[in-house]
Design brief:
The structure holds two protein chains of two kinds. By secondary structure, chain A is an alpha/beta fold. Chain A folds into two domains: 89 residues, Double Stranded RNA Binding Domain; 90 residues, Arc Repressor Mutant, subunit A, CATH 1.10.10. Chain A is built from seven helices and six strands. In chain A, strand 2 and strand 3 form a beta hairpin. In chain A, helix 5 packs across helix 6. By secondary structure, chain B is mainly alpha-helical. Chain B has one domain: Up-down Bundle (Butyryl-CoA Dehydrogenase, subunit A, domain 3). Chain B is built from eight helices and no strands. In chain B, helix 1 runs antiparallel to helix 2, helix 2 crosses helix 3 and helix 3 packs across helix 7. The longest helix of chain B has 20 residues. Classes of the chains: A alpha/beta, B mainly alpha. At the A-B interface, helix 1, helix 2 and strand 4 of A face helix 1 and helix 2 of B.
Amino acid sequence: MSELDVVVADARERLVRRARREGLETVGYRVVDSPLGPLWVAVGPRGLLNIHYGAEPSPLELRRIVRAYGPGVLPDARRVDDVARELDQYWSGKRRDFDITVDLSPLTPFQRKVLAATARVPYGELITYAKVAHNVGNDRAYRAAAGAIGDNPIPIVVPCHRVVASDGTLGGYAGGLDAKRRLLQLERGAVPPGGWQPAHLSRS
Amino acid sequence: MTHPATFGELLEQHEREIFAYALRLVGDRDDADDVYQDTFLAAFRAWPPPRRGNERAWLYKIATNKAIDRGRRAKRFVRLGDLPLAAPERDGVSLADLATAVKALPTGQRAAFVLRKVQGLSYAEVSVALECSEDAARSRVAEAMKKVKEAMR
């Protein structure tokens, strides 16, 4: 880091504080390291908005955030500290539930309902896409539920990796199936070849 | 350079050069920090940038005006001690000599000189930043160059 970088980083911190003090709505972001690679994390005035696999935000998520909170999406390391700490605890096996508030308000009511149902699946347990659809009161909305889960803006914390296909195979995952497998390994131990069989699935 | 979708992207793309520019204009780290703050807060409030693809010149325009405003309110004397932060010494020209020569320029010429010769903006961008025609931008830079060269002799 050059001296200019240090001076500018310092100036930026003051800028972010001043913008908030002057009532300009801001969302803070930073890239957090994880065993699954870099994660782009954004926290808004009402809580955690986005965890994206990669060092850059997803254009779709960014549009959603800007629509909800305006263009003040700023690099702000401190704002993300609590999330980063809880994620570290999760990776090291010391945390099973997240205490941070999540903000799903930029999503549609149906997406919110599906993700709220997903968030209720306990650590280490599995549920099928069909069961999530059932839990939100719409058995036939299986595909829509799977779509909402696939579109989850807050993976890991809203544990969509715990949702698998009805035949016990892993289904899909925004961070890639390898990431899903590793998350489930962290929570449940080794994945049997071909995935878990339906008999092992949670009935919750 | 991609079109910024958010204020943060704009900030990340341009904050270093705007800070360096402010430093070159006002010559003092604390004042440069103030110009940086004023510039980006004004950009934030004015979002979105007026014309796609012109964000950089737009920021330079705001920064130039903020630096001039600040210069009007503050002391005439500028300390250029922080200049090495922003400009590496080159070609045997003493930085102190150059700094002194640039410092001696009237504000408009100094801004034109720094925008074109140090920040590397095109004349079209300089004209947007200084709210003048391209011809006027060229003549201000030429005039500034002449003075700087004379001073460096």
